[in-house]
């Protein structure tokens, strides 16, 4: 890990020892050009000797973070533009820095205040703890709970969406259920988020987290109790080398009906972003979430949006491919259920998805026509569903979904024991599993999609000719869009839904490149 500090007083000289594997670099503002030249020269010296007549390769100097510890003019930092990712530049507390250019480094790299407070040692350790390169999240799931046998009320499972408890929970907090599998400790902080909602009555809950000492299954330390106020935001569990596992239980009191979904846990960046630096989340009244990440790129149109496909591991998908296009981009993910709930939910959630896309367009100063929505498999539903709100320049999708209700209806004959999560999607969206619910879910898409004529939108659609999920999606889209007069490009590949993802992905990127070259004059040769 390489961190560059820019200021007058070197922080590394104020601590006895730096964390292992952390390279701390320092320079004053006026020395930035000489510093970069020195770094380049050192990088070239580490390369194998050049053959006669061979040109030296271009070297990119990269830092995991840049920390500014004094007031500095933005122009002085411009040579560092390509040395840092978005959300990797910070200023120390108490320092006021202003952006002087709409395309300057502070706006393109999203300058933020370092949230760590305290002495220099604390801040360096905080950076070392939060600038790790990976992302990960998973769930403690509803099927894996042990219910307190003393609870005499009614228990109902709504698939893997939620478990409902109805009855009297007692006058004092008492265990309601425990997650059967413990939560492991990690060398990074963890973020915990419980999905729960109250259906009726006057009942309260709290979450109990019981640490177990490393190397022991009987040595417990004092439990952490999180009340409902504490559960309004994800709880950050700091790393502790002495802890091996955490037992997690839900307690309740009062009477009424409660519903619980899974407990989400993720690697935490402790206020620097969700999953990745700069990542964000939104939760609705049911405590269900979507996640999003916005990167200003070169701040030139268009802005591209990628809706993640179905993924059991929680986190963002598509960062590499979207960043390679060098446009401003946004990633949107759906961490609900087993691997996503197709970006449909409560009105507040759907409105918020539209809102965060619009906020990013406003930040860039773009119109809705300077937008491309895209996705693969489950992500195609999100791209298509929200296209009618924006009338974007283009929609790029591979292996589309439109009628999720039909996917559920054919599951017994087409894919027994496979993709049963689609049933949970139906439950989550409609609350039921009847034929009426199936038709309602199908119609939900077409009611939304039909709100626009897409007169200036290009649709690029790749599909599997023997798709065993939503086999009629492409034909229905072509029929509908043909009537509207939209521009359509399609490409079919032999096989079922997951038989040739590599070809679909190649076609997907090729369409992006063509659209960006033809419509915006970008060059990818």
What can you tell me about this protein's structure?
With 525 residues, this protein is α/β, with parallel strands linked by helices. It folds into 3 domains: 2-130, no CATH class; 137-266, Jelly Rolls (Sandwich), CATH 2.60.120; 279-519, Alpha/Beta hydrolase fold, catalytic domain (Rossmann fold), CATH 3.40.50. 25% of the residues lie in helices and 29% in strands. It is built from 13 helices and 22 strands. The strands form 3 sheets. Strands 6, 7, 8, 9, 10, 11, 12, 13 and 14 form a 9-stranded antiparallel beta sheet that branches. The longest helix is centred in the C-terminal third of the chain and has 20 residues, at 501-520. The relative contact order is 0.08. The mean pLDDT is 95.
Q: Please state roughly what percent of the residues sit in beta strands, choosing from under 5%, 5-15%, 15-25%, 25-35%, 35-45% or over 45%.
A: 25-35%
- Low-confidence parts, pLDDT < 50 over ≥5 residues? none
Secondary structure tally, helices: 13
Which homologous superfamily in CATH is the superfamily of the largest domain?
Alpha/Beta hydrolase fold, catalytic domain
Main sheet attributes: strand count, strand direction, barrel closure = 9 strands, antiparallel
Overall morphology: globular
The share of residues in helices is 25-40%
Task: Give me the CATH architecture of the largest domain, please.
Answer: 3-Layer(aba) Sandwich
Q: How many domain modules? A: 3
Under CATH, the topology of the largest domain can be stated as Rossmann fold
Q: Which CATH C-level class of the largest domain is it?
A: Alpha Beta
SSE-based structural type: alpha/beta
- The count of DSSP E runs of length 2 or more, i.e. the number of strands, is 22
Looking at the chains present, what oligomeric state does this protein adopt?
Answer: single chain
Radius of gyration (CA) equals 26 Å
Average pLDDT reading:
95
């Amino acid at each position: 890990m390489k961190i560059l500090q820019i200021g007058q007083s070197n922080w590394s000289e104020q601590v006895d020892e730096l964390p292992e594997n952390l390279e701390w670099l320092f320079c004053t503002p006026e020395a930035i050009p000489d510093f970069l030249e020195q770094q380049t020269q050192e990088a070239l010296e580490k390369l194998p000797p050049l053959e006669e007549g061979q040109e030296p390769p271009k070297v990119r100097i990269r830092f995991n973070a840049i920390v500014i510890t004094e007031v500095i003019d933005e122009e002085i930092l411009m040579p560092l533009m390509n040395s840092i990712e978005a959300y990797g530049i910070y200023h120390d507390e108490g320092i006021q820095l202003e952006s002087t250019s709409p395309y300057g480094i502070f706006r393109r790299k999203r300058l933020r205040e370092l949230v760590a407070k305290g002495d220099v040692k604390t801040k360096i350790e905080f950076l070392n703890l939060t600038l790790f390169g990976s992302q990960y999240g998973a769930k403690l799931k509803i099927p894996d709970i042990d219910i307190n046998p003393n609870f005499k009320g009614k228990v109902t499972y709504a698939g893997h969406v939620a478990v409902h408890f109805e009855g009297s929970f007692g006058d004092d907090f008492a265990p309601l259920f425990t997650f059967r599998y413990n939560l492991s400790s990690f060398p990074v902080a963890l973020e915990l988020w419980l999905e729960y909602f109250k259906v009726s009555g006057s009942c309260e809950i709290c979450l109990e987290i019981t640490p177990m000492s490393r190397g022991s299954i009987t040595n417990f330390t004092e439990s952490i109790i999180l009340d409902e106020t504490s559960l309004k935001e994800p709880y950050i569990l700091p790393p502790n080398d002495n802890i091996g596992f955490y037992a997690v239980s839900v307690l309740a009191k009062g009477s009424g009906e409660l519903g619980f979904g899974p407990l989400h846990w993720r690697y935490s960046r402790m206020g620097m972003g969700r999953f990745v630096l700069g990542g964000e989340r939104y939760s609705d009244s049911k405590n269900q979430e979507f996640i999003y990440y916005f990167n200003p790129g070169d701040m030139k149109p268009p802005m591209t949006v990628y809706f993640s496909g179905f993924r059991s591991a929680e986190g963002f998908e598509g960062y590499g491919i979207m960043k390679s296009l060098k446009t401003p981009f946004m990633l949107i993910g759906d961490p609900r259920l087993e691997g996503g709930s197709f970006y449909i939910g409560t009105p507040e959630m759907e409105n918020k998805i539209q809102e965060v896309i619009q906020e990013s367009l406003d930040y860039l100063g773009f119109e809705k026509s300077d937008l491309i929505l895209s996705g693969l498999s489950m992500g195609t539903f999100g791209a298509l569903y929200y296209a009618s709100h924006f009338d974007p320049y283009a929609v790029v999708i591979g292996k589309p979904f439109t009628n999720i209700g039909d996917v559920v209806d054919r599951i017994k004959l087409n894919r027994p024991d496979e993709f049963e999560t689609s049933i949970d999607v139906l439950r989550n969206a409609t609350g039921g599993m009847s034929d009426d619910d199936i038709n309602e879910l199908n119609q939900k898409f077409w009611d939304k999609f039909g709100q626009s004529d897409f007169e200036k939108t290009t649709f690029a659609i790749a599909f599997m000719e023997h798709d065993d999920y939503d086999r009629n999606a492409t034909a229905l889209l072509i029929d509908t869009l043909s009537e509207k007069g939209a521009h359509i490009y399609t490409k079919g590949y032999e096989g079922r839904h997951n038989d040739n993802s590599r070809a679909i992905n190649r076609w997907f990127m090729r369409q992006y490149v063509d659209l960006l070259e033809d419509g915006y004059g970008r060059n990818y040769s």
